[in-house]
Design brief:
Keywords: Membrane, Transmembrane, Transmembrane helix. It comes from Pseudoalteromonas gelatinilytica. This is General glycosylation pathway protein. Strands 1, 2, 3, 4, 5 and 6 form a 6-stranded antiparallel beta sheet that branches. The protein folds into 2 domains: 142 residues, PAS domain (Beta-Lactamase); 160 residues, no CATH class. The chain is built from 10 helices and 6 strands, in the order H-H-H-E-E-H-H-E-E-E-E-H-H-H-H-H. A hairpin with a 6-residue loop joins strand 4 and strand 5. It is an alpha+beta fold and 314 residues long.
Length: 314
């Protein structure tokens, strides 16, 4: 599972906008108090790992002093630049210049950190009846992970990827083995001179092909959803999609076995009739149960989405 995509982060931001703004206002007040009392930011950094940059602008929109970097990886690159930079054309500065209330930007890609972030700006006194503007940049994806209680899982993501990678590798090795059996069976079938060969042999090849296809699709799904793309564990659709793919693989395998058993019964081995029929009933039951699960899961998620939208509107 990759880190949160920008689209998912923006959707979560829109859902939790009020909560996020209140949190950032409290952080802004703490930063302002630290500036006034000339205190260090280390406690804030430890408590709020999504903080990235802090800087101040004068009334003309000129940055006063270099960037203050909350994260260690940015200190070498960004902590010695920024002083004298003209930011008067930035939308958040224009809004803050017009009214004294704090303002929040829409999510945007930061030119400094190259991450999706939002900025909050607030007017603070600078002495001599002057004022300046305090600006804080925060990483939006890490902020969403923080408020969703997802930080520890996000840190474990690289280890999860290794585990899923090993599983996908094993699945693909099994696919190669099945394909080898397919080609070996086809060659043996073509070159065989025995006219009394097993009539079910071609169907055995079909079974190997279909199983290889099902296992390959399962491995591809795990590779896409758990390694290459972000999987939002807080949305039921992600889990529902994975379960659907997995159950589909089982359905294919059981259906093939039922079909092969039915062919054996048709060739005179009547003891296979009842097992074949029971397996077909099992396939139908599993398919109906999966359909009910998918339908009810989609309806439940739709209700939750509507409730979230109503909360945002109010």
């Amino acid at each position: 599972m990759a880190r949160m995509s920008y689209l998912s982060a923006i959707e979560r931001y829109e859902e939790q906008q009020v909560l996020i703004h209140n949190l950032l206002l409290s952080i802004l007040a703490s930063v302002q108090a630290s500036l006034t009392n000339k205190q260090e930011y280390q406690q804030l950094v430890n408590q709020y790992p999504f903080l990235e940059l802090q800087y101040c602008l004068n009334e003309q929109g000129i940055q006063q002093g270099d960037n203050v970097c909350f994260k260690r990886q940015y200190k070498k690159k960004l902590s010695h630049i920024g002083a004298g930079q003209d930011l008067s054309a930035r939308p958040y500065f224009l809004l803050a210049s017009a009214t004294p209330e704090p303002h929040f930007t829409s999510p945007y890609i930061s030119t400094a950190t190259k991450h999706l972030c939002i900025s909050v700006i607030k007017t603070i006194p600078a002495g001599n009846n002057l004022q300046q503007f305090l600006v804080i940049d925060v990483c939006l994806t890490e902020l969403i992970e923080f408020i969703m209680g997802d930080i520890k899982r996000a840190r474990m993501t690289p280890y999860f990827k290794v585990g899923y990678g090993l599983i996908v590798g094993c699945l693909f090795c099994l696919v190669f083995y099945l394909l080898y059996k397919v080609f070996a069976g086809m060659v043996d079938l073509v070159l065989s001179e025995d006219t009394q060969s097993d009539p079910l042999k071609p169907f055995t090849i079909i079974i190997f092909v279909t199983l290889a296809l099902a296992i390959f699709d399962l491995g591809k799904t795990i590779l896409e959803e758990e390694i290459l793309m972000h999987k939002d564990i807080f949305r039921h659709s992600s889990t529902r999609r994975t379960i659907t793919r997995f159950i589909s693989t089982i359905l294919i395998a059981v259906s093939i076995e039922a079909l092969l058993t039915m062919f054996k019964a048709a060739l005179g081995q009547t003891e296979y009739v009842i097992p074949a029929v029971l397996m077909m009933f099992a396939v139908v039951g599993l398919l109906v149960a999966l359909a009910i699960y998918v339908y009810l899961g989609a309806k439940a998620e739709d209700v939750l989405t509507q409730v979230q939208r109503l909360k945002v509107k109010h």
